[in-house]
Each structure stands twice: as structure tokens, then as C-alpha cells.
């Protein structure tokens, strides 16, 4: 992953006093899926979508839980609830790289998120995790959005749209005034592309705190910080009420930047896209990376 040793402080910035950041059209939901469903029947909180939101093409609709299990509770408007109803592209959609070429191999994914990657080699593994977190926070309060660069500098989206940008000069991060703008989704994407350039798995791992495997929740991140490093997002969790065994749906981008995709478990497990999260395990194997038990982390 990208790694930069940067040294300097960014100046304080004014906060942009704007209203609701959601700028995408309102789309009527065309059908229902098992409860809990999205709170607003005539709105969806996935601001990047350029097509109508379809409840039949979501994570919750596509992936039934393992036999005897139930999805864990997720409060309306929570990150877990938002992740559970992420839009998916149609079945059998391949994973494409940022340049339009096919990912190799095409055997590690069970579904592709309906989420743009962008034309540049930026939205890699940790970047895709940050993208989902920022997109959710954008639906709640845009002033919550911030990420640390590898240098440790904390860059807030509210400051950035208020006119406080930054530039990298050698090993230094320097203030760089920019034109103030409304906190639209287009502005968020420009901000994130700049974050992706100077942040990665190392910086993201420093923003998270470790949690035990047995306590896995949607929104948690499996992450190995460094170069190379990798990050995988926990999208959903199901639990067996009697055995308390937990299973997770996982998603990743990778290098080079590519469509974020739901991972497929080994065929021998019989679990499809679900991964058993063994609280006593030392390792958790995913198709393209193996994580230690200590590498399950949660947002602060």
C-alpha cells in the first residue's frame, strides 16, 4: 500500500455552515425485502447511485443466512443497517479494475457492490473501506468525516470544503487554501481521492482499535497495516441463537484499484459467501489474504 512519511501541521479551518449534504435524487423503492428494511420508503441513503435503488438487488436480499442463523440486530440509521442494504450489481457481474480490464482471478467474489471505483488507481483495499465509512457518515452528518494521512495529519471534510486544503511538498504537508464549496457528494469524492493518495492500510490501522473475533460486528475491519498490507470490511453478521456461532459477509477492493466485491468462501465449507468467525482461531483466511485474530478492528 501507499506509504508516505510526511511532517508538518495543517492550520485550523472554519467549518462550513451548510445544511443537508444529500444531493442525490429520491428514488421510490420498487419492492420489499425481509425486515428490517430501510426506514424511508421513498429515499435511499446511497448518494453515489446513478440508477434507481432496487431492494431486490441488495446484500440482505441476495445472501440468506446460514441454516439456523439470524442476522444480528441493527438499529435503523446505524452503520450496520446501512451496510446490510448496500446495492449490488446483477448476479454474475465480473470484477473490473479501474482501467476497465478484468480482475484476475474472477473466482474470489460472490457479488459486486454497485459502487463506482473511479478511473485512477486510488480506491484500493483500505481506500474502499474508508469510502464506505465516509459515504455512511455523509448520510448522517458530513462534519463527522475525517481521515488521517500516513503522516498522521487529520484531514476533516468540513475543513476541506470550507477552504482549508493541503499540499504535499517533499516530506511535508502544508496548508493550501482552496475555494470553499458546498458539501455535496461530488465534493466528497474529490476529497476522498486526495485522501486515498496520501493514506492507506497503515494510517487506517492506526485509527482503529482491536476487538476480539468473537465480538465481530458489521462495520468492523480486518486489516494489516503496512506495505504490503490489506483491509477487508465486515458487511454483515449472522448468529446461531443456540450455539452463538457467528458468520460474516466480507468485502474488499484490492490492488490495483478495482470494484469492491463480496468475497466467496472456500467451496469445501458449504457456506457460500459466509465466513465462520471462530473466536478461538489464530487466523482468519480470506481468498487473497490471511489475517491474524488480532487484526480485527473497529472504528473509534
UniProtKB/TrEMBL annotation:
It holds the Pfam family DUF4846. Residues 1-23 form the signal peptide. Keywords: Signal. It comes from the Bacteria. This is DUF4846 domain-containing protein. It comes from Hymenobacter oligotrophus.
